[in-house]
Amino acid sequence: MRDQYQIDLEKYSLHKFKRNIESRDMIPSRVSLKDELDERFTILEINGITNLKELIDVLKTKQKIELFSKKTGLTIEYLTLVKREAKSYLSNPTRLDKFLDIPAKYMDRLDVVGIRNSRQLFNKAKDRKDRQQLSQTTEIPIETLTELVCLSDLSRVYGVGPVFARMIYDVGIKSVKEFVECTAEDFIRIYEEKEQKKADFGINEIQFSLDLAKELDIAVEL
Question: How many Å apart are CA 134 and CA 68, to the nearest integer?
Fold first, then answer.
């Protein structure tokens, strides 16, 4: 069974990836991805790349990048850069002790049963029944465990680290399911009303996070 923690790379098309690069404001180190975009992606398509899984697989190692560069004429520097951008769509697990306001003693109890990061907790406790069982096993209150599962779920979203996950949770958005029901404008308004300060992130940033979040499985039962 596919790990639901991340987006399904096979379902994320190369065309959609290209469209994102074309429309987004890229960070300075990746602006060059926009150069000769049509020509370069046509070469990728000619060589059988149709989705992000195929792209990441063919560029998996330095040796593979070198071989693909020789085959296609695309530079090693470009292929390395496009690989980094593609892999950034995959959320990395967050250490549970990075989430704010959760007592350390509960982290220790989860550690004893081999759960140390958001991905492990998500996979073990996304279902209500499994979460109740884990609560009994670890003697962690179900309310606290559910909160931690929610933070783990939110941290699957592109651009959402442990601090931002806490911010999203604290404004009343408890899961990916609830996050994707917002518009970018609504989210910023809710955030600014709750925090009583201007958001230090923009509509375009939140919109891209929302777009990628819609590619995630809705898996957490609250």
Answer: 46
Q: Which residues contact 134 (CB under 8 A, 6 or more apart)?
A: 113, 124, 125, 140, 145
Q: What is the pTM of this model?
A: 0.93
Question: How much of the chain exceeds pLDDT 90, in percent?
Answer: 92
For the cut 90, the answer to whether the pLDDT of residue 1 exceeds it is no
Chain position carrying tokens 């899961």: 175
Whole-number Å distance between alpha carbons of 214 and 131: 24
In angstroms, the Cα distances linking 52 to 82, 110, 205 are 10, 33, 21
Residue spans of the domains in the chain: they are 9-87, 96-213
**Could you identify the residue written with the tokens 């939110």?**
154
- Secondary structure string (H, E, C) spanning the chain: CCCCCCCCHHHCEHHHHHHHHHHCCCCHHHHHHHCCHHHHHHHHHHCCCCEHHHHHHHCCCHHHHHHHHHHHCCCHHHHHHHHHHHHCCCCCCCEHHHCCCCCHHHHHHHHHCCCCEHHHHHHHHCCHHHHHHHHHHHCCCHHHHHHHHHHHHHCCCCCCCHHHHHHHHHCCCCCHHHHCCCCHHHHHHHHHHHHCCCCCCCHHHHHHHHHHHCCCCCCCCC
pLDDT tens digits, 120-171: 999 999 999 999 999 999 999 999 999 999 999 999 999 999 999 999 999 9
Q: What count of residues does the chain have?
A: 222
